[in-house]
Structure formats: C-alpha cells, structure tokens
Amino acid sequence: MYIFRKKIKITDSSLLDKRTDIHCHILPNVDDGSKDFENSLELLDYLSYLGFDRVIFTPHIMLQYSENNFTALNSKFREFKNDYINTNKNSLDLKLAAEYMLDSEFINKYREQKLSFKNKYILVETSYYNPPIDLYDLLFQITSEGYIPILAHPERYLYMNMYNYNKIKELCLFQLNLLSLNGYYGKSALEKSKILLKENMYNFVGSDLHHLKYYKDCMNNFKVSKSELDKLSRLYDNNEALW
Known about the structure:
By secondary structure, the protein is an alpha/beta fold. About 35% of the residues lie in helices and about 15% in strands. It has 9 helices and 11 strands. The protein has a 6-stranded parallel β-sheet. It has a 3-stranded parallel β-sheet with strand order 2-3-5, covered by helices on one side. Strands 1-11 form a two-stranded antiparallel ribbon. The longest helix is centred in the first third of the chain and has 17 residues, at about 70-85. The protein is globular and about 45 Å long.
C-alpha cells in the first residue's frame, strides 16, 4: 500500500516542463512584486529553470496602485520586454494581462481598455477577509459584457466556504496558486486548496510569484500525491487557452 501513498517531488517531475505561468508579479516597480529590472530577471530565470517557457505578467490594478491602467502598464511592459530581449536571456515568451481587485475603483478601471487574456478572460480578486458587498453583481456584469471572470486563488479567501465556492463557481472560473498546496499561504489555504483540487473546482493554476527566496525554498520541498500531480497537469494544459 505504501506505493500508493508515496509523494512526488514537483521539481523531480515533468509537471512544469514547457508550461505557461498565467499569474505573476514580475513587471518591475508597479506593485508589491518585483522592485527593479534585475529582480525581474532573477524571477524569470527561476521560472525558466523550473521548466516554464511562457509567462503572462498580471500586475495589480487596484485602488492601492492608482496609476496602474492599460496605458501605463502596457507602456512599461513593452519597455521591459525590449530590455529583456536585449539581455540575450530572452528564453521566455512574455505577454501582459492584469489582476483586477474587485474594490471601489473596479468599475472605473473596468470601463477602460482591459488587460485581459485573449480579450476574453479577466483575472479578478477580492480582499482576503471580506467580500465586496456587490460581489455577485460585479461578476455578473463582467459575464454580461461577454467576458469570463477568473477568480484568482479562491483558497486564500478566509470568508469563503464550500457553499460560497459552489455558488460563485456559477459565475466564474477558479485559478489555483500552486504553492497553496504546500502551505505557502498558511493552513487555511492549504486545506481549502486540497479540497477544491480534489473536487475538480479549479480551471487554471498559476505561481502568483512576487519574491524569490521563500518561494524557491518552498518549491524545493514541494511534494504532491500522484492524484494531485495528474490534476495539476490538466490545469496546466488548460493554461494554454489563455495564451
């Protein structure tokens, strides 16, 4: 029976080979992620080392970062990508989307030109502690305009339970933060992510990479069951639809 309980180390598997990361904060000096160009290079080098060959940047668009919008972020991304290519380290293909906070400024930001995946999918998040009062109305508005909302890391929202997940899943897709399964975000996110993965509630998976050291330490010790590995592989397959 031991063989069926054996855990598989992620970095020893082929799970991340030639994959697409759809959620990260690597665009420098725009949010709480990378602070400068060299830091961004380190983060991209690490994703390349893990096996990724394509990365979609998703900087925060929220009240806290009031200057972030389509025009500003697109300009900074083009500048970064050009500099990245000139380093001769352009082993990764890069694209730009965004992670929209469902806060008091969301509607104003949403009415602008959108940083979406394939002009179809919108990555959104909420506060970890409390939902916006009009959460379901906001998600419905997105869908009514022909877009498909993807809720980032639902396992991290402390106010959500299985009733919330089942209800909200009718209006959006779910994106897992990979290291939730290793306790990177705490016990609650760990337990919820395992349940949601087991119940096939997730549609996509991303790194949500901000900073390297602790993330790298966790990846080096990250093990999952064979069943979890198979489910994660299917989620990474789904990521291709967003490229």
